[in-house]
């Protein structure tokens, strides 16, 4: 037990008045923080004991603990176990409950649970006897000779069991005549011969059956024989089957045969659902429905964009983006790793031909793929000049992190030092114990530090930097321990790491590297969630430039080197369609001094201005090229009527995030098709251009799906069934516009714990009252 824990235990042992006495003193900074935390914990516990919170608050009590010594106000809020009086850090109550109560560390918790179970067993027997009085049952002819009162009790219990079984068998179940069972109901069985209980382990089965019989008598509505009407049951079962199919990859079809699910279906009056039925007739019917719906959507669209995602993984997913903002899943294809450029080109052309009516490739306005700088995209655009083939910007920004790590010396130094520090503390038992001790005191749990080995990987390096920053104070406390100084006498690595931990420059480098990676990673996550269109690429990169400049000023980094890395990556990702879409999309029109809304040509470089002209002339026929450029000049000088321009740019708050969003994303295209119908040649280019997506992110195959499609030795029928299952699940997600990952949601939920409740409670405390 630490000194702080010992002080907390002694304070609690001396009486519950220690905490209020300390709280009554005029608090300083630490005392105020402790009191605020204590009040927040008390609020959470007050809600929990009323049935509105976690179970463990009945066993954990917040206390204010003064440091060792008399007459000093409390400076820490901790949790005390009411069963054994042990105290713990209050940083993570759910973890404390799991480790102390559920894992058996508390000597009194298991005993209390066992004592609570005994009255329940007694109550079960008494409930049975209240249903059928023992005195009303004639004595059994099979009574054995026994001594004392134990024999009489066993015979009475056997008689009660037989009577209850007889009553249960006579209970009439009212079912619908059109229920699923085609056979007539079985007549009630005769009462079974009365059992003679031995008083040993063999009675457990009989007691369980007795309890089930009593429950059936008390709850006749929940009888498994009471079936729903046929139409209602079929509708409910169809919804359940669709949920299984649309959640495949996250929910196993084998779960349909889980005993608890079968019991639930019986309780609500539904027949069982087998996995063979799910993967057979129901899957075929749902697949046919989804395919017909997707085909109808594509037929109604004048053109589409093909999205290819997953080129660096086992399975490539091909989807179709439509002008109305909808996306339709096309298919998932196992690919060799890595796939060649020729194979990628052939696969994407086949997908376009299968989507286009009568193999008319002109219906495809372009491709967006996650393989950055792929030769296949350039070759396809060269062979089919009406296509605009884009590299996924999520992939481009992810590569920017690697570029920064390679070019900025700060990254080399921070990542190398962090890897050395993490490896040393993980490997040396003595210093690892010191670190774990202070991690427990600060965070409530101990952990190893993750190590990112070269070459630089964004996810691994970010995790390592985050671990080092999270454990900054435990590391500093550990190297100041006398036992660590003794290790330093004979260990030069310990001296080097200890010196590193105490340097301000080291922590500044780590924070700077972590901050830049987080800055870019947050932009990547936002892109994945919002799926920006091609017209947003130039503003997004300009926003990135501003954030990197601010980062350079904050951490005193050479702005020239950092901005040069950004510009090199920008040139590799840039496509002329960015500039053209930015100019032609009414969403980005700017109001000038005369009140007109004009395209933002002034934000383009001279080269980007020329790209607009070249792209427009490429996307129209040679006969229309001159006319299209004339219309572009008119668009440049006159723009759009202010009333329509303002209507296009109307924004409203997103109910889920609170951010301001465009009220109608389709208005940009609709303006060109209606209000600007006199600009016919330019309008043809605009409507094909401004709806294109800048990211390939959409539906991504979950690991189980990848295994279905790539399992060695699978039959053709099995692969076809897996393809149908993936198709149904993918189109369901795309229809709901749900691009999140269920596993990520579960991780987020399970790592939250009670911290949100504590944060809310802390925020609700008035600082003036502390």
Automatic annotation (TrEMBL):
Compositional bias segments (type: Basic residues): 142-154
Database matches in InterPro entries: DUF7963, RNaseH-like_sf
Residues annotated as signal peptide: none
Biased composition (Polar residues): 761-770
Bias (Acidic residues): 743-758
Start and end residues of each stretch annotated as Disordered: 1-28, 134-154, 739-770
Occurrences of domain DUF7963 (ranges): 32-109
Organism: Oryza glumipatula
Name this protein carries in UniProt: DUF7963 domain-containing protein
